[in-house]
What we know:
The chain is an alpha/beta fold. The protein has helices at residues 11-22, 54-60, 77-87, 124-143, 172-179, 199-209, 230-241, 252-260, 266-274, 283-288, 298-311, 313-316, 321-340, and strands spanning 2-6, 27-32, 45-48, 68-71, 94-97, 111-112, 147-152, 154-156, 184-187, 193-198, 218-222, 227-229, 247-250, 279-280. It folds into two domains: 2-154 and 198-222, NAD(P)-binding Rossmann-like Domain (Rossmann fold), CATH 3.40.50.720; 156-196 and 225-335, Alpha-Beta Complex (UDP-galactose 4-epimerase, domain 1). The strands form four sheets. It has a seven-stranded parallel sheet with strand order 3-2-1-4-5-7-11, with helices on both faces. A three-stranded mixed sheet has the order 8-10-12. Helix 1 (11-22) packs across helix 6 (199-209), helix 3 (77-87) runs parallel beside helix 4 and helix 8 (252-260) runs antiparallel to helix 9 (266-274). The longest helix has 20 residues, at 124-143.
Amino acid sequence: MKALLIGGTGTISTAVTERLVNELGWEVWLLNRGNRKGSVPEGAHQIVCDIHDEADAAKKLEGMTFDVACEFIAFQREDVERDYRLLKGKTKQYIFTSSASVYHKPAASYFVNEGTTLANPHWEYSRNKIACEQFLMEKYRSEGFPITIVRPSHTYDERKVPVCLHGNNGTWQVIKRMLEGKPVIIPGDGTSLWTLTFNRDFAMGYTGLMGNRHAIGEAFQITGDETLTWNQIYETVADALGVQLKAYHVASEYLSAVGKKYGYDFEGNLLGDKAVSVVFDNSKLKRLVPQMKTTVPFHVGVHRAVEYVLSHPEECQKDDPEFDAWCDRVIEAQEKSKENV
């Protein structure tokens, strides 16, 4: 089997690439700019190209056909329109990576499946993903373009410790606050439900859909089975760090409002995604990929991530003093408001 991966070296796609090459024996071609050569496993082929240069991409794909083409870096409708032009007649299946944030926030029920309404008034990113899905489904219905849509939620790997709220330089500053014994902001009261999926578990579900005729014309959410509250998530991170968590709860609406004053756009990330309780029904996926299950529970995966982050300071420890100061200001302002009531 022969696959084209557009991207192929990100958090999600790296695990897919590695499983295809190392475990399933696929012939894998990665089309990307070649900036992350260290993430390309031995045995994978590379097409060095900026996919946004459609003429160059068409030239380099000339004469090539694939059993499956996988798109990991399309974020707007024009991206999938370009892929359609490039790959029509060249692939037996086109898999578009959408997002579980496309579901209505808040949905009528916290128990979400592929039939849940697609609408997110809080996040343009999600609305753009919905537009991509709509274009592809129209091409499937009108022309038979062989699409499959996958919707991952919060997927992580050993290179990043997942948290709910962070600044522009990533999650390290939150970890650093924990290590320094400083209070860490958790949106809401920390009891909303969330699902974290280790990238290798995601890859099990994703690759099970590749080449599967029953997946054509369908959408699938791919997440792990473990549901945790944000309090439990942060407590598990603190346990992995060997420190005591000093949780400080702040309303998500308040964080979104005061974040805008300092250039942080938390509305989509919080009100349009992580602040809303969600439990994913993965029964549709498991009917096609019965081997899909959580093999790396969060308490195991976060220990791997903490160990990696602490041992790779140059790669993973980018300080964010602006976000650190912002957290202190928010906490101070809320404490003062208690005194003034």
